[in-house]
Description:
Blueprint: H1 8-16, H2 61-74
Amino acid sequence: MVQHSTNILLNVNLVGMGVGWSLVPAYVIPLLGENIMVKKTIEPLPMIGLYATYRKDQKHEVINLILKVLKEKFCLDLF
């Protein structure tokens, strides 16, 4: 059986209840309980795209600062 889930915490909870296994991103590891075994894959897995999201009508300077840093550090000319 295969399940497509957009909720990574649901996957973790199902594994914790003994309902199968899951591939999870590294950022989830600190959220896992003592009863869940974590094994790193031998082969590198595909990378996922990350996107910056914010409200179109944003007026906060901190958002402008974050976008500036993203543009400078990651050469993103999308903003």
